[in-house]
Amino acid sequence: MQQRLKISGRSESLPMSQANAASLEAELDWFTRVVETRFGLHFGQESECKDIREHRPPELCDDESEYARLVRECGMGFDERIVLMLALIPHIRPQALDTFFVSNKNFERAFTEFGGVKGQVHGGFLPTCETASFILHGNDLAGRFNFIGMLDDDHFFAAKGIIEVEHRASGEPLFNGVLKLSNEYLNRFTTGQDLKPDYSMNFPAKRITTKLTWDDLVLTHDVLEEVENINAWLRHSKTIMEDWGLERTVKPGYRCLFYGPPGTGKTLTATLIGANAGLDVYRIDLSMVVSKYIGETEKNLANIFDQAKTKNWILFFDEADALFGKRTQTSSSNDRYANQEVSYLLQRVEDFPGVVILATNLKANIDEAFSRRFQTSIYFSLPDAEHRLLLWQGYFKGKCRLEDSVDLEKLAEEYVLAGGAIANVVRYGAIRALHMGRDAISHDDLVKGIAKELIKEGKTI
Ligand SMILES: Nc1ncnc2c1ncn2[C@@H]1O[C@H](COP(=O)(O)OP(=O)(O)OP(=O)(O)O)[C@@H](O)[C@H]1O
Ligand SMILES: [Mg+2]
């Protein structure tokens, strides 16, 4: 269902995208008047206004559009709203910046003071910091210096990941940086939807979800207790760090190592921790990251960590041994590259203010120096007979039918299988039953499936 919202001064409620459009129209109108006045002042033309700030920005106090919400949340003033609009306009009304293409007849070239660049394909004007500084301060040097504060890492534009200043060439002036609105905020301001980035060459992470719940999770008491500690940290970290004042002494974030044989529930547990706290969990396959994207890795990882920080994601590094194995070899230049990336990654993991979970089948490969830095290290063992029975029963809680011949106790007792293997057996059994024209799974279907699983693991039945 589409969300409906009330816009300031209007009594009717509007769908989110219309609400956003209505607010942005008003803001665009204000922005255009400000720019016209700046041009007038700069070129000494007759103008009604003597100062761009005479144009009051639209009132947004009871406007519920996403744009208005952010403006209120950050306490944005005139200057910040101009910069935000400037970064947004190439996406929503690129022609509104065409006035900046006017050429300087004296030199037969563009006006340097307008800044801006042209895109590779996009024909419109892409604003830079120079453009923003020009609109806000014209030739006023003190104003220009003040503007630099908005480019600071601590300013909410960077801290919240709203605007990034993209430098396209090294060694050029700071103000040449292009004002780039993040995709996340672009989506919010327009369609109103949250964008969930997904796996690509530049983003080697994938959001993981599950339909299973805590009730389906079968873990020993000790493991559950450790997992509960992570849940508790997620619930109380703010109180612990801020209210109890531990942020000065305790490193932010929570780093956990999950280790144990395949299919014992490491990924599932990480996914459920996220679901429980209402946070997205992103899985990064380290074997892919370290071996495939040498050189590009740091940039891609930085991208993930930066986004994760502002959005409170849980980061789940799978196959973590791929990383630790690499650290000691330095025989080739590729290895040295990988080593650099490993050090970089370890540093980012250590500095990350949220939850990071690393998973591996081989704890022996995990660097001593690093394991000391984990808050918890949890061993996911193969389930015992009692837990195997719970797992078997769990898979048949739904509508899936079993023939009377099926003896789950016996299967649980006789075959040592992890939850993942049991899931495979159940799937195999269901396919076999249907294939043979039956509407219920037989004991024999499951035994056949178990044999296949054991062969996979290099064992025989
Ligand atoms: N402890 C468990 N409780 C409930 N279900 C489980 C458990 N372990 C495994 N499963 C089932 O097996 C599937 C695979 O488990 P999961 O992917 O979490 O294993 P893993 O430990 O991450 O394995 P790997 O080391 O191969 O990555 C789960 O989606 C779930 O259906
Ligand atoms: Mg896994």
Main attributes of the structure:
single chain; 461 residues; alpha/beta; Rossmann fold; Helicase, Ruva Protein, domain 3; 3 domains; 6-stranded mixed beta sheet; 46% helix; 11% strand; elongated; disordered N terminus; binds adenosine-5'-triphosphate; binds magnesium ion
In short:
By secondary structure, this protein is an alpha/beta fold. Helix content is 46%, strand content 11%.
Your description of this structure?
There is one protein chain. The strands form five sheets. Strands 9-11-12-13-10-14 form a six-stranded mixed β-sheet, sandwiched between helices. It has a two-stranded antiparallel sheet with strand order 1-2. Strands 3-4 form a two-stranded antiparallel sheet. The protein is an alpha/beta fold. The protein folds into three domains: 4-190, no CATH class; 205-379, 3-Layer(aba) Sandwich (Rossmann fold); 385-456, Helicase, Ruva Protein, domain 3 (Orthogonal Bundle), CATH 1.10.8.60. Strand 3 (103-104) and strand 4 (109-110) form a beta hairpin. Helix content is 46%, strand content 11%. The protein has helices at residues 16-42, 66-74, 78-92, 129-137, 141-147, 156-159, 183-190, 221-243, 266-277, 286-292, 297-311, 321-326, 333-351, 368-371, 385-395, 408-414, 419-435, 443-456, and strands spanning 4-6, 13-15, 103-104, 109-110, 117-118, 125-126, 163-166, 178-181, 205-207, 254-259, 281-285, 314-318, 355-360, 376-379. It contains 18 helices and 14 strands. Mean pLDDT is 86; it is low at 1-11. The protein is elongated and about 95 Å long. Adenosine-5'-triphosphate (ATP) binds next to helix 9 and helix 17.
